[in-house]
Design brief:
Blueprint lengths: L1 H40 L14 E9 L2 E8 L15 H23 L13 H23 L6 H19 L5 H36 L6 H25 L5 H4 L4 H20 L7 H21 L2 H5 L3 H12 L2 H4 L18 E4 L3 E4 L2 H9 L21 H13 L1
Antiparallel strand pairs: 1-2, 3-4
This protein binds heme C (HEC).
């Protein structure tokens, strides 16, 4: 009874946290994209133009809501600090706070079983939670160190180093975590660094120059420049982080054998795409280049997926076909290898004893496996909701393939 109550409460909390998390993230990322867009489209007064307004950095007109927003970016005069002045930070903090709560209420509960791949490690509980939290904090410290150091003056080197270290972290987590958790953990690390950028750099620098303005000193653009670099990093992180956060919906990727290189292709391609979108005013072939990037990235991922992973696993042709079906039919989205939170872990299921609702015990022979797939509502495994869809449309041959695959687990 207590366990049921507890799982019901964590279930409800994850609904609330997840929804607020998504809302806040949309607001934050929407802002990030709009502000960068405004920055790029700002009409900057040329040197030959007679400068009537010394403090004008640029202007922009935008049509929306039945009128024109006439926007000016300007240097602030200490005696003319605008009131009210809007700050942007809570979208980011809310996203991070609900994200951490969501991690705790859905992934750190039940001994962090949802993160672990039991075939890779016997670790669970605090060891795994410590790794996940340590990854978030550790990645922020390392990233911050790189971009505070003199490496910052060599952006290409600093970007490559940061990228390499992200992949190294993903490789490390792949030694313990299941595929979906590796994607998520990488996203959580990058997302944490984004929020920390807002808190430790962007807002802090803004506070510094606002404080000196309030003390009557002129507007120091140095602080704004520092804040802007971190804003730009956040901007380029948005696409990869969104993708990683949604990766639970992409089981064909998260269940892949070569998860780390796939992750690398995705992060690189999405950052490049954002860069190409931003270069549209200076680079004529930006759209063709985006299509080219999509084409190359999907091609590389397809190659990574297709390569000989099945032979590595030593599966028969029938089981290998079943493995493909397991992913393409969506089974892998619920039945995650090494995890049993959403649906039973199917590893070692063949010929094992299953306990069904009503404490009925059955042997998981071929017939049981077939009927579990075709008519799952006939026998519900104890401790789970009757949430599995019926796969009545599968042909006998396809069922045979799936069963062959389940037997190989
Ligand atoms: C929407 C989530 C979901 C999807 C998709 C799904 N399942 Fe399930 N599956 C479950 C749940 C939940 C259970 C446990 C409840 C039950 O017995 O119906 C289950 C039970 C099973 C069982 C019995 C497990 C046991 O421990 O006795 C088998 C076998 C199985 N699924 C195979 C599959 C296969 C194969 C596919 C794809 C063709 C698939 N499932 C797709 C959620 C899912």
């Amino acid at each position: 009874m207590e366990a049921v109550m507890e799982s019901e409460i964590t279930g409800w909390l994850s609904v609330v946290f997840r929804f607020v998390h998504v809302l806040a993230a949309i607001m934050w990322i929407g802002n990030s994209i709009l502000f960068t867009w405004m920055e790029l489209n700002l009409i900057i007064p040329g040197p030959d133009q007679e400068k009537v307004d010394e403090d004008l950095l640029g202007h922009l007109d935008m049509l929306h809501g039945g009128g024109v927003f006439h926007l000016e970016k300007r240097v602030i005069k200490p005696d003319r600090i605008p009131v009210p002045l809007h700050w942007f930070m809570w979208q980011s903090y809310t996203t991070w706070i609900t994200g951490v709560l969501l991690m705790a209420s859905t992934f750190y509960v039940h001994g962090a079983a949802a993160l672990v791949d039991a075939t890779k490690t016997s670790l669970s509980g605090w060891g795994i939670i410590g790794m996940s939290v340590g990854g978030m904090i550790g990645w922020w410290l390392i990233y911050d160190l790189i971009w505070k150091s003199r490496l910052k003056e060599h952006p290409r080197l600093a970007v490559s180093l940061s990228f390499g270290l992200v992949l190294l972290a993903a490789y490390f987590f792949n030694q313990y975590f299941n595929g979906r958790a590796v994607f998520l953990q990488t996203g959580v690390m990058l997302g944490t660094a984004m929020s920390a950028n807002v808190y430790f750099h962007i807002i802090r620098n803004q506070k510094k120059f606002m404080a000196s303005l309030a003390a009557g000193l002129p507007h120091d653009m140095k602080y704004g420049k520092q804040a802007k670099l971190r804003s730009l990093h956040n901007h380029y992180m948005t696409f990869p982080v969104l993708f990683l956060m949604l990766s639970g919906h992409f089981p064909q990727l998260t269940s892949a054998a070569r998860i780390v290189p796939i992750l690398g292709v995705i992060i690189f391609a999405l950052m490049l795409m954002k860069y190409l979108m931003n270069s549209r005013y200076s680079f004529k072939h930006w759209l063709a280049a985006i299509f080219g990037t999509v084409f190359l990235a999907t091609g590389s991922i397809a190659a990574l997926l297709a390569a000989p992973a099945d032979t590595v696993l030593g599966l028969s042709d029938e089981a290998a076909a079943g493995r493909k079906l397991f992913v393409s039919q969506g089974c892998a989205a619920c039945h995650q290898m090494g995890a049993a939170q959403i649906a039973p872990n199917l590893q070692g299921i063949h010929q094992s004893t299953q306990v069904l609702v009503g404490d009925i015990r059955v042997k998981a022979d071929d017939a049981y496996l077939r009927s579990s797939i075709k008519q799952p509502q006939l026998q519900i495994v104890k401790g789970y909701a009757a949430a599995m869809p019926a796969y009545a449309h599968l042909t006998d041959a396809e069922l045979d393939q799936l069963v062959a695959y389940l037997k190989s687990l």
